[in-house]
Design goal:
The complex is a heterodimer of chains A (303) and B (318). Chain A is mainly alpha-helical and 303 residues long. Chain A is 69% helix and 3% strand. In chain A, helix 1 (25-35) packs across helix 10. Chain A is globular, with a radius of gyration of 24 Å. Chain B has helices spanning 4-33, 47-56, 63-75, 90-125, 130-144, 147-165, 183-213, 216-223, 228-246, 248-266, 271-280, 284-312. The chains are: A mainly alpha (303), B mainly alpha (318).
């Protein structure tokens, strides 16, 4: 045992050695995340939301799109806990189905943005020069137009539909991810281990995706979780303006839009209030969860 | 302040604005003119009458030619004529709507900066007390709750409940009446619009203040016996404002985005409402015009923010 290299984090005491458990970066982050109660509560809420979304695929208390399933403008009651809308559809059922749209838009957009932003950012940051200049100009042009307007224009061009909404929103929110990844690539490419890889004869693809990407992953994942609430919010804005999933399919922004006249008319605010509440709580949860993730996995970044 | 470097920088930025404007207007122009439907569909004109109409508005020409004519107009400050309200010149229309939107946006910006900086400073000064927790929670709520939700709640509370309780003495009048609306009419939309971005500003102000407060010169200021209020406002806040300025650009874009929704809720005759209407009415000349004005607005807003930077922090040079 005399040849063993002493571990600096090992404390010897009478009766044995007390070593700090060796954990990976990810395990460590996960532990920090679990200690953050707000983030944990948010995660539980989001888990339940996913469950509601899944259940609503197979079962809702009433048929969500059947007109006249309950009395028009019925206020919340025992049979219809969230009331009924202007066409006599059960609001609870529609809220449940609306979960699908919000979650789908949020997650799918995050994936597309992750893919596009990371590839663009890595290429621009690693190759620099002309490639970087072109991508940076593109990013700057996209920053120069109001995102919601671009989304509306794309929505009108592509036509209604869930997938088109996702594409339209992705086109307006990919720049932050690209800029972040580019910055990461710019700094990481100067580090010694990249030089070593290059000296060892690794090809550019191997260096970019095998060495730079894994080391930039923390901030990238954190950024991706913040894309989800932004996408859900943009989708809600779109459908609130009338550019949502085609009716009769329920989504929260569209439901809020349908409820606006009866709120302004002063006879039934609940048609708007419940989807608005659902949206707000969900966005809050995603933001709290994202904050927790950032504190856990990206401790260098302070905000 | 206006050194040669700054002037070169301004020149570069103006070039970028022009380039963005060209790219945006061409992109929107091309997209918009390939869209299905036209402003004339509802008028049931067919055959030769339609051809005459298309020719009258230059819509029978190829898109690059149309775009060239559009650009020639833009150089002279002419954005063309509306297709929906036939022959109505767009430039005066858009300028009037811009002034309405600018008033709303300006009020929202005041709300955002006022709320954001006040909350941020208070939270930092009372770090880790209930004040801090309350204000930071309000900030997260601010950028999580969509502005149309805040607006609807405002209408519900001030337009209806307060009205019922006070029997009409306190009442938020809605919708908007004149072109510009009264101060009371302006208040609710401005707050609904400004609340969203105030959350981000609160966060950044708080973080920046906490950073600054720990520095030596603050201790020095306290040591020489300055009142706490003076230390915070005159010494700490000024330096904490630098990072805050950096998100003013995104804040302005957020407010412009939000104004589209808010204007539609409150019936405010601004650019955002016009944009949505022009899409629904297939009035594509107006759509292109509004887009162009927005891109111009954002370009200059970002430039202005960069210049404000140099005023707040003289160390920054371009």
């Amino acid at each position: 045992m005399a040849t063993a290299i002493p571990n600096p984090s090992t404390i010897e005491y009478a009766g044995g050695t007390l070593a700090r458990e060796q954990v990976s970066l990810w395990r460590d982050g996960l532990r920090r995340l679990r200690r953050n109660r707000l983030a944990l509560a948010a995660a539980i809420y989001l888990g339940l939301l996913v469950l509601v979304g899944l259940v609503s695929l197979f079962w809702t208390p009433y048929k969500p799109n059947v007109i006249g399933a309950c009395p028009t403008y019925e206020l919340p009651s025992g049979a219809h806990p969230f009331g009924c809308d202007d066409l006599g559809r059960d609001s609870l059922s529609r809220l449940m189905v609306g979960t699908q749209v919000s979650l789908a838009v949020g997650v799918a957009t995050a994936f597309i943005v992750l893919l596009v932003g990371v590839v663009v950012g890595l290429i621009a940051g690693y190759f620099r020069g002309v490639v970087d200049a072109i991508f940076s100009l593109l990013i700057n042009i996209f920053y120069g137009v109001p995102p919601l307007l671009v989304a509306v224009a794309l929505y009108v061009l592509l036509g209604p539909g869930l997938i088109n909404i996702i594409i339209a929103i992705s086109a307006t929110v990919w720049m932050d991810m690209a800029r972040l990844t580019r910055g990461q690539a710019l700094t990481i490419r100067e580090r010694e281990f990249i030089e070593a890889a290059r000296a060892g004869g690794a090809r550019a693809g191997k260096i970019v995706f095998g060495h730079i990407l894994p080391n930039a992953l923390g901030p990238i994942i954190v950024q991706a979780t913040f894309v989800i609430p932004i996408a859900i919010l943009t989708a809600a804005f779109l459908s609130f303006l009338g550019f949502g999933v085609p009716p009769p399919r329920a989504d929260w922004g569209g439901m809020a839009n349908e409820g606006l006249p009866s709120l302004q008319g002063g006879f039934d605010p609940y048609i708007l209030l419940f989807p608005a509440l659902a949206l707000s709580i969900t966005l809050l949860a995603f933001n709290f969860f994202g904050d927790g993730l950032r504190d856990a996995f990206d401790p260098r970044q302070k905000r | 302040m206006l050194t040669r470097g700054t002037l070169i920088y301004i020149g570069q930025r103006l070039l970028l604005i022009v380039f963005t404007l060209l790219a945006v207007s061409f992109g929107v122009f091309a997209v918009v003119h390939t869209l299905p439907g036209s402003a004339f569909v509802s008028e049931r004109v067919h055959g030769q009458a339609l051809q005459i109409l298309l020719h009258e508005y230059g819509l029978d020409q190829p898109i690059p030619v149309q775009y060239w004519h559009f650009l020639q107009g833009v150089v002279h400050g002419d954005l063309g004529v509306s297709l929906y309200i036939r022959g109505l010149p767009i430039t005066p229309l858009v300028l009037r709507e811009l002034s309405v939107s600018a008033m709303l946006g300006g009020a929202a910006l005041v709300v955002t900066i006022g709320l954001g900086i006040t909350f941020g400073v208070l939270a930092a000064v009372r770090q880790n007390t209930w004040v801090d927790y309350l204000l930071t929670s309000i900030a997260v709520i601010g950028y999580s709750v969509p502005s149309f939700v805040i607006a609807s709640l405002g209408i519900l509370i001030f337009g209806q409940w307060l009205n019922n309780i006070t029997h009409g003495a306190l009442y938020y009048p809605e919708p908007w009446t004149g072109t510009y609306g009264s101060l009371i009419e302006l208040s609710l939309p401005a707050i609904a619009l400004g609340f969203y971005t105030s959350g981000q500003i609160t966060r950044i102000t708080r973080a920046a203040m906490l950073d600054v407060i720990q520095q030596d010169y603050i201790r020095t200021a306290r040591a020489k016996g300055l009142e706490n209020r003076v230390v915070i406002i005159r010494h700490a806040l000024r330096n904490a404002l630098v990072p805050v300025t950096s998100i003013l650009g995104p804040t302005v874009i957020s407010i412009i985005t939000g104004s589209v929704v808010i204007e539609n809720i409150f019936g405010i005759p601004g650019l955002g409402k016009e944009f949505v209407e022009s899409i629904f009415q297939h009035d594509y000349n107006v759509t292109v015009g509004v887009f162009t004005v927005y891109a111009l607005l954002i370009g200059f807003a970002n430039l202005a923010v960069d210049l404000v930077y140099t005023v707040i922090d003289p160390r920054i040079r371009y």
